[in-house]
């Protein structure tokens, strides 16, 4: 859709709102024949006019000036989104469950509202001013409350550690993560693990020199379970030498694909920590769907892997599912969720399929309305069985304007996910494609590692320039 700005520059905000109301169209300064969006700043108000499919929607929203630049930007952004919301509602009937809460972390502003106004007033503000649906208000408040509790319990000088293993047995068609299949890049794995251990020790020196206390450890991917039990033992020996594993409140191993999990690997993980949190992710328990998305395993493989980790003594399990996968149906999705509930898995994460440019197959044959029914079913079914949402996030091109939610029974929450997603603790990341997040007094500073394994192997370790610059300025907080 063509956009015309007068006295303003809000392209980022415009792109976010278009993602929600016009998900298949990108704002452009050229006339693409899809419609026109005109945005005008008139002193202390925004006027938005949208022409689409022979319909015209127009709305105005005022804002008050503020001397503080960030607050002024927030007020103008809210006024623009509000005007856009009212104008867009006149030309389309698309569902936007989160209203004008367009960010990746909707629970973050909700947390601020709860702290300032309390729950009842927060509910009123979200409904009346942000146009958020009641189901999402409850979801966001529950996640925000869990974040507030996590902040109170978090180590004062704590730090989280992320270790990335960007290799998989094969690449799923919906995936856009930096990950390589063993078939094409398996030869890099031995050298990669060796260099990864070197970086782990370097990060350990940083933690020791600053007197930080390791709090959570997350090993993700890719599919970490693609490495052998001997490599698992070696990796954890390095982590113990660098950080002392006994310091961590929580250790998560995102094993991932069921077809990579063996009894030997599960036993190796149990020997590190009987309380270790392990993810065994089916995504779907419909074999036809699994084949269509390129998972190369079956539902039976998932049950076998689940039995294997439990037999080894690992009981703190998470399983991921995805709503909106190609070939899936509401009935099939319901069966998957119910099956996981019946298995008494303490943590179940429900993702909504997101259209990603780096994925080999970014589209789904499941409609937005069907996907929304799937997500609504999972929320109702899980909460009725005692699962509570403890963290959530959204993506720009997420299906049906929905969300990704981690649900858990008491004690099944992943602290790392809360700390990382809500930007409340510094995260030191190791491995290709990983990003360290340095929590400062003003914001979060990110430092990306080399993106691909071959780049990671080819170049010397980064010496955390950003980290030390922030530290020398006295801005780093813990």
Task: State the main characteristics.
478 residues; pyruvate-formate lyase- activating enzyme; 16 helices; nine-stranded mixed β-sheet; alpha/beta; Double Stranded RNA Binding Domain
CATH C-level class of the largest domain:
Alpha Beta
What's the overall average pLDDT, rounded?
Answer: 92
Task: Give the CATH architecture of the largest domain.
Answer: Alpha-Beta Horseshoe
Shape: globular
Q: In angstroms, what separates the terminal alpha carbons?
A: 44 Å
Percent range of helical residues: 40-55%
Identify the strand order in the major beta sheet: 13-14-12-11-10-9-8-5-15
- Count of spatially separate domains: 3
Largest sheet: 9 strands, mixed
CATH fold naming of the largest domain: pyruvate-formate lyase- activating enzyme
Q: DSSP strand (E) fraction?
A: 15-25%
Per CATH, the superfamily of the largest domain is tm_1862 like domain
Broad structural category: alpha/beta
Count of helical segments? 16
Q: How does this structure look, described?
A:
With 478 residues, this protein is an alpha/beta fold. The protein folds into three domains: 1-94, Double Stranded RNA Binding Domain (2-Layer Sandwich), CATH 3.30.160; 95-141, no CATH class; 154-430, pyruvate-formate lyase- activating enzyme (Alpha-Beta Horseshoe), CATH 3.80.30. The chain is built from 16 helices and 17 strands. A nine-stranded mixed sheet has the order 13-14-12-11-10-9-8-5-15, with helices on both faces. A four-stranded mixed sheet has the order 1-2-3-4, covered by helices on one side. The longest helix is centred in the first third of the chain and has 21 residues, at 69-89. The model has no long low-confidence stretch (mean pLDDT 92).
């Amino acid at each position: 859709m063509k956009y015309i700005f007068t006295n303003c520059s809000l392209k980022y905000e415009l792109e976010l709102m278009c993602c929600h109301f016009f998900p298949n169209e990108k704002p452009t300064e050229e006339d693409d024949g899809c419609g026109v969006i005109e945005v005008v700043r008139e002193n202390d108000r925004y006027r938005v006019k949208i022409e689409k499919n022979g319909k015209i929607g127009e709305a105005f929203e005022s804002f008050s000036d503020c001397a503080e630049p960030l607050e002024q930007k927030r007020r103008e952004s809210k006024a623009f989104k509000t005007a856009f919301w009212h104008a867009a509602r006149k030309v389309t009937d698309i569902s936007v469950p989160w209203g004008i809460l367009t960010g990746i972390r909707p629970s973050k502003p909700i947390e601020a509202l709860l702290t300032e106004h309390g729950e009842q007033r927060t509910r009123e503000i979200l409904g009346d001013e942000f146009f958020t649906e009641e189901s999402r208000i409850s979801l966001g408040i529950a996640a925000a409350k869990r974040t507030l509790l996590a902040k109170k319990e978090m180590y004062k000088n704590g730090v989280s550690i992320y270790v990335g293993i960007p290799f998989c047995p094969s690449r799923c068609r919906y995936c856009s993560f930096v990950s390589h299949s063993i078939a094409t890049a398996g030869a890099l794995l031995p050298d990669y693990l060796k260099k990864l251990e070197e970086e782990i020790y370097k990060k350990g020196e940083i933690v020791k020199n600053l007197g930080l206390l390791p709090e959570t450890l997350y090993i993700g991917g890719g599919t970490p379970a693609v490495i052998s039990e001997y490599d698992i033992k070696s990796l954890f020996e390095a982590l113990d030498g660098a950080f002392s594993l006994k310091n961590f409140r929580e250790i998560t191993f995102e094993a991932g694909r069921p077809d990579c999990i063996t009894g030997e690997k599960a036993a190796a993980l149990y020997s590190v920590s009987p309380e270790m949190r392990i993810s065994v992710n089916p995504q779907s328990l419909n074999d036809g769907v699994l084949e269509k998305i390129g998972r190369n395993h079956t539902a039976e493989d998932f049950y076998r892997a689940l039995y294997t980790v439990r037999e080894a003594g690992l009981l703190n399990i998470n399983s991921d599912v995805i709503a909106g996968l190609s070939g899936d149906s509401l009935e099939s999705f319901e069966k998957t969720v119910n099956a996981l509930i019946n298995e008494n898995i303490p943590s179940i994460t429900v993702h909504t399929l997101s259209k990603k440019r780096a994925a080999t197959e970014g589209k789904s044959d499941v409609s937005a309305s069907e996907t929304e029914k799937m997500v609504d079913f999972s929320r109702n079914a899980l909460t009725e069985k005692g699962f509570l949402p403890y963290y959530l996030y959204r993506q720009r091109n997420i299906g049906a304007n929905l969300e990704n939610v981690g649900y858990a029974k008491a004690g099944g929450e992943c602290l790392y996910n809360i700390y990382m997603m809500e930007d409340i603790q510094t995260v030191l990341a190791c491995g290709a494609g990983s990003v360290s997040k340095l929590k400062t007094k003003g914001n979060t500073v990110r430092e990306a590692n080399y993106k691909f394994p071959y780049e990671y192997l080819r170049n010397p370790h980064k010496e955390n320039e950003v980290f030390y610059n922030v530290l020398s300025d006295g801005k780093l907080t813990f």
